[in-house]
């Protein structure tokens, strides 16, 4: 028996949902807390199997999980995620929608995805100033025919995430620079008072 194909519901992919995500991001502080809040909200609001934010490690060229929701530890620890092999086009050419994890050669770990109960995946790159930062992925438990509206929505979320991540990075670097300058600055010594004062 063929599984029922799911399509997104307009009540989920709309400006209200986007506004809620903006509100989450506007209160961004620490990277891990912000990322976890976004993937949790997406999973619950869009009724997904799960969601994950993966950031690119420029040294190892691997994608490292920054936050996830709805995915088991065994799936998350299935092995190193190569940026050059795992849904390759997502980092190079843009969003990648996988309808059936069973027969898509772009997946690095298809058997593990099946064991996890995943049917479809949408992977959207986080890119800022033409530099890839990572990917935002959503996973469904039933076949999902992603529409252009779905993809555009997720691209908007990914862009906002990229901006916030960059802001957190710059803010952290700024704070580090200020602290370094304070350490280098010689201590201010109070002048000794004379008898004439």
Can you describe this structure?
This protein is an alpha+beta fold. The protein has one domain: GAF domain (Beta-Lactamase), CATH 3.30.450.40. 40% of the residues lie in helices and 20% in strands. The chain is built from six helices and six strands, in the order ααββαβαβαββα. A six-stranded antiparallel sheet has the order 3-2-1-6-5-4. β1 and β2 form a beta hairpin. The N and C termini lie far apart (97 Å). The model has no long low-confidence stretch (mean pLDDT 80). It holds the Pfam family GAF. It comes from Desulfoferula mesophila. This is GAF domain-containing protein.
Present the secondary structure layout.
Layout: H1 15-26, H2 31-45, E1 50-57, E2 62-69, H3 73-76, E3 81-82, H4 89-92, E4 96-98, H5 110-115, E5 120-128, E6 131-140, H6 148-184
Antiparallel strand pairs: 1-2, 1-6, 2-3, 4-5, 5-6
Helix pairs in contact: 1-2, 1-6
Summarize the entry for a quick read.
The chain contains 6 helices and 6 strands. The chain is α+β, with helices and mostly antiparallel strands. The chain has one domain: 2-Layer Sandwich (Beta-Lactamase), CATH 3.30.450.40.
Descriptive labels:
six-stranded antiparallel beta sheet, 197 residues, GAF-like_dom_sf, 6 strands, Beta-Lactamase, alpha+beta, globular, 6 helices
